[in-house]
Write a structure and sequence with these properties.
alpha/beta, six-stranded parallel β-sheet, Rossmann fold, 3 domains, four-stranded mixed β-sheet, 10 strands, 381 residues, globular
Length: 381
């Protein structure tokens, strides 16, 4: 078995840590040849020393002489010796490096959902032209991907031959599961009074602050719906969301013949990451405890009350209007969450920023960001 050479962008974040845990568990299968981070130069250098990596990049300028900025990230993503690029940079900063990796002919294991939400049509078009694969790292999309695996057809994200039968032709609907975050169990949610600490207190997953806030508002599930549209060539009417607090079932696929397939696993990101890194094979072991039958007892599912989660409600209302809504949903949300984390706006204003962006209509990325910042200033407390 040949050793797969990996470039990891977002090495010092939670996805990066889980990726390196998988690499360390399979030293005979993987070699890290490039590492990038945001601004943590010391952390990046420590990982480079641990894994013997010489090609480094940072998003932010630094005093250590590490290549920095978008161009440096793109050069690392296009590293000629790479076989697979793991994209775990948070937010829209992952867009240009993802395109650079695709243009270089590299498969991309994608955790940065904003890349497909912002420009999924363009990214998937270039993917098809280059004949590379987009391998999903989110646990929900990995679950869908695993359920769609078949000798008879292939999912859109890895289909490289137009003559190959389409897996989505057999799908009736896809059900994305959500943990519900810290607020689903509350009888009433007063978003105006929600604190940053409360929003960051996720009951199941350890993630970065932006993703954790998105989980609290359930906006993350809305963004994952858009990501699923592109990865699996689905229609908005085929997407549903169920809240599943135990986070054991990661998604369902309901097929047209009536079968309902699900993927169950520990709530640990190492498992979907490992599946992407080893695809189309499966590893013989993982750095995660196996599932037990006891854990499968008492699993619960409920449809979310969209009146209590206005961000998710906005997504359900926007998707039938067309792809022009996708970048507004992600960019307006990104600006709003950043402002909330900085204490500039209250949590209820996040939905307001998104809603006003949608009301303003289609616009280039820069204009969407400008409008969102303008709304944040108007709503600042």
């Amino acid at each position: 078995m040949s050793c797969k050479r990996i470039v990891l962008l977002g090495a010092t974040g939670s996805i990066g840590a889980s990726t390196l845990r998988v690499v360390a568990a399979h030293p005979e299968r993987f070699e890290v040849v490039g590492l990038a981070a945001g601004r943590d130069a010391a952390g990046l250098q420590a990982l480079a020393a641990q894994f013997g990596v010489k090609h480094l990049a940072l998003a932010a300028p630094n005093a250590e002489g590490i290549p920095a900025g978008e161009e440096a990230l793109c050069e690392l993503a296009a590293l000629p010796e790479a076989d697979l690029v793991v994209m775990a940079i948070a937010g829209m900063a992952g867009y240009a490096p993802t395109l650079a990796a695709i243009e270089a002919g590299h498969d991309v294991a994608l955790a940065t959902k904003e890349v497909l939400v912002m420009a999924g049509t363009e990214v998937m078009r270039r993917r098809a032209e280059k004949g590379v694969r987009i391998l999903p790292l989110d646990s929900e999309h990995s679950a869908i991907f695993q359920c769609l695996q078949s000798q008879a057809s292939q999912p859109a994200c890895v289909r490289t031959d137009a003559a190959t039968p389409k897996a989505e032709a057999r799908v009736a609907e896809v059900i994305l599961t959500a943990s519900g975050g810290p607020f689903f169990g509350r009888v009433a949610i007063d978003w105006a009074k929600v604190t940053v600490a409360e929003a960051l207190n996720h009951p199941r997953w350890s993630m970065g602050p932006k993703v954790t806030v998105d989980s609290a508002t359930m906006m993350n599930k809305g963004l994952e719906m858009i990501e699923a549209l592109h990865l699996f060539a689905l229609d908005p009417a085929q997407l549903r969301v169920w809240v599943h607090p135990q986070s054991i079932v990661h998604s369902f696929v309901h097929f047209k013949d009536g079968a309902l397939l699900a993927q169950l696993a520990q709530p640990d990101m190492a498992l979907p990451i490992q599946y992407a890194l080893t695809w189309p094979d499966r590893a013989l072991h993982a750095p995660v405890a196996p599932m037990s039958l006891a854990q499968m007892q008492g699993l619960t599912f409920a449809e979310p009350d969209l009146r209590r989660f206005p961000c998710l409600k906005l997504v359900f209302e926007a998707l039938p209007k067309g792809a022009w809504t996708h970048p507004i949903l992600t960019l307006a949300n990104e600006v709003a969450v950043k402002a909330f984390l900085a204490g500039r706006i209250s949590a209820d204003a996040i939905a307001a920023v998104i809603e006003r962006g949608l009301e303003a209509g289609p616009a280039p990325f820069d204009e969407i960001l400008r409008r969102a910042e303008e709304t944040v200033r108007a709503l600042s407390r």
